[in-house]
Design a protein that fits this description.
This protein is α+β, with helices and mostly antiparallel strands and about 350 residues long. The chain is built from 10 helices and 18 strands. Helix content is about 25%, strand content about 25%. The strands form 5 sheets. Strands 3, 9, 13, 14, 15, 16, 17 and 18 form an 8-stranded mixed β-sheet that branches. Helix 3 packs antiparallel against helix 7 and helix 4 packs antiparallel against helix 5 (about 105-110). The longest helix is centred in the middle third of the chain and has 15 residues, at about 120-135.
């Protein structure tokens, strides 16, 4: 999964630095908080990468895995090695003496054709970074562990409408980012998830051959979940091409919650028979990547909180402020162009 392409080569719209999103305006970064959250300077048009880096910093599982990697073994082409520099950022972010902890990472991405002076799509850069980890880490087993953090494994489900028999699945596939279609009117994350996993009808010229009926019959097909990831990344598909070929952004409302349960939302039928029944299906939100502006000109920021933490922080490039959950909810959309684009959820441990 994943590739990389930029949406357009245009300038971004900067958000006013005085915007605190309902936070405490007289907030001072204490040493404790500085070690966990700090701002990242915008070098050109790097707000997209800055926001993603804040979500990576909030993903303690990613840092733990990268810390196990002996990156000193990477000698040739180390300057162009994305995971080497990502590991460096996650370590240096807690060092107050390091004034620009992400600068080498940005330069590395630039050499990998994720240019500093181009506006990017956050989901595409996210997938590109995960792909670079797979391609450039010499410890392939550890690289696979990192990918598995985000891997949602699914299988295709085909069922005959006439006799209810099912075809053997062709084999598992996986998603590192779950793309959810949104409607032009109001949406909820629950509705979007149900729609994604809802079985679709194949009829008429799309009829399939049924081995039981010995003829072509209508079928239902869709995805069934084989396993859930530790970190669930959801992409709200706000960018869409019009009939005239122009890309535009949907600022309509998408309501989401701090917690979700796949089983409660989608029901038992969404899971494959091979799904491990003792796996947790519950998740807690810990990062929101926000896009402000239009498809042609925009600005990325992020809301983050630490694992097990209840306090939310708003990161707008070099500025970080504490905020409330109400401030996060303002990114549902419907009233402004400041809207949630990516949601990152952490799976809760199984209750014993």
């Amino acid at each position: 999964m994943g590739g990389y392409s930029s949406r357009s080569n245009v300038s971004t719209v900067s958000e006013p630095r005085s915007s605190v999103w309902s936070g405490r305006e007289n907030y001072r970064m204490t040493p404790e908080r500085f070690s966990r959250w700090r701002g990242l300077e915008n070098y050109g048009l790097t707000c997209c990468v800055n926001a993603l880096l804040q979500s990576f910093i909030a993903t303690s599982e990613l840092k733990d895995l990268l810390d196990r990697w002996d990156s000193s073994s990477v000698r040739e082409d180390a300057l162009d090695n994305v995971p080497v520099h990502l590991k460096g950022v996650l370590g240096a972010i807690r060092d107050p003496s390091c004034r620009a902890p992400h600068k080498d990472f940005l330069r590395c991405l630039d050499r990998q054709h994720i240019r500093l002076n181009v506006q990017h799509d956050a989901d595409e850069v996210f997938l590109a970074v995960l792909n670079f980890i797979q391609q450039q880490m010499d410890d392939k087993a550890l690289a696979l562990e990192i990918q598995s953090l985000y891997r949602l494994s699914v299988e295709l489900h085909h069922q005959c409408v006439e006799c209810s028999s099912t075809r053997p699945p062709p084999g598992p596939s996986y998603l590192l980012s779950l793309p959810l279609h949104i409607r032009h009117q109001s949406n909820t994350l629950k509705d979007c998830l149900v729609s994604f996993f809802e079985l679709q009808d194949l009829s008429g010229i799309d009829n399939c051959f049924c081995d039981q009926c010995k003829t072509r019959t209508p079928f239902k097909h869709g995805h069934r979940i084989l396993s859930l990831p530790t970190i669930l990344c959801v992409q709200l598909q706000r960018f869409r091409y019009s009939d005239s070929g122009w890309m535009h952004k949907l600022d309509c409302s998408v309501e989401f919650q701090e917690s979700l349960d796949f089983q409660d939302i989608c029901g038992q039928d969404v899971f494959s028979k091979d799904f491990q029944k003792n796996e947790s299906t519950k998740y807690s939100l810990f990062a929101v990547i926000v896009h402000s502006g239009t498809a042609r000109s925009g600005h990325y920021t992020a809301f983050v909180r630490s694992a097990g933490g209840s306090d939310w922080f708003y990161a707008n490039d070099s500025h970080v402020n504490p905020v409330s959950w109400e401030a996060v909810r303002e990114t549902y959309g419907g009233r402004s162009s400041r809207t949630a684009y990516m949601l990152l959820y952490r799976r809760e441990p199984t209750q014993t």
